[in-house]
Amino acid sequence: MMDDFFSRAIIAGVGVALVAGPLGCYIVWRRLAYFGDTLSHAALLGIALALLFQVNITLSVFLVSVFVSLSLLTLQRRVTLSTDALLGLLAHSALAFGMVALSFMSWVRVDLMGFLFGDILAVTPFDIAIIWGGGLVVLIILMIFWRSLFAATVNLELAEAEGMKPEQANVVFMLLMAAVIAISMKIVGVLLITSMLIFPAAIARRFASGPEQMALLSALIGVVAVFGGLFGSLQWDTPAGPSIVVAASTFFIITVLTATFCKVIKSIRFNKGNNY
What is the pLDDT of residues 2-58, one digit of tens each? Predict the structure, then answer.
């Protein structure tokens, strides 16, 4: 029989995986991995502000992530810099401000390693309620805006021609990203959140035949990574959050090697067939 803390960790991890998987597909499709990193770095500033003003950390991280997202949209219209350059400026600025703010709060004992790399084994029933409640809201909104988001991802001009509102869909996407970053922070930490969004989607892309199937596969792969990482952590006494990421990256490496091996075998058979 599993201990209560381990059962809570599994429930929390599964909840994050089910939300991060479908949303991660849009990160892969739109090539926005750096945007996810920017929001995860901004989470540290949210933590610092939450401790300073003694408010809920999840709420503070969400609000800071929203502020960074809206700042990106504003800067894109007013500054003649590429998006990746703006993301780099915002990411490192938020991270630096967060670290400096935490260093000034000498009266607060901060588990910096827990915030950076997660502490899934310490989740409480309240954390689980936030993860599953917030995750359900994110999935419902994602389903409502799925068509608009996908159309804007495939072809922005075509989406506008069909009467959709891609700009509105982009704002919704950024808000959903901020929400997922906020509820995922305690699972894998601010430095590893993006991996939970990218790895399952990248793996699912190799096997899915359509966008909806990819979203479903991505969620299932994330769940498998959570189980693999947590039980691996239990077996080898390794950090739980990073172990989940290691499990996901291992699955990705296996799929890449398997695909490469299959291509080599097909090439050999094809060459043999041409020799006869």
Answer: 578 899 999 999 999 999 999 999 999 988 888 888 888 888 899 989 988 889 888
DSSP three-state, residue 155: coil
- Joined together, the tokens standing for residue 93 give 């600025």
For the record, the structure tokens of 39 come out as 């929001």
With tokens 């490469």, the residue in question is 260
Q: Which amino acid is at 89?
A: L
CATH superfamily of the 4-275 domain: ABC transporter involved in vitamin B12 uptake, BtuC (1.10.3470.10)
Q: What is the spatial distance between Cα 190 and Cα 181, in angstroms, rounded to a whole number?
A: 8
Dist. CA 120–CA 140, nearest whole Å? 25
How far is it, in rounded angstroms, from Cα 136 to Cα 122? 22
* Domain ranges for the chain: 4-275
Rounded Cα distance between 274 and 269, Å, is 9
Q: How many residues does the chain have?
A: 276
Distance CA 90, CA 72 (A): 8
pTM here is: 0.88
- The better pLDDT of the pair 148, 62 is held by 62
| Residue 240 Cα distances to 2, 8, 113, angstroms | 15, 13, 12
Interhelix angle for 166-188 vs 193-205, to 10°?
120
CA distance 139 to 152: 18
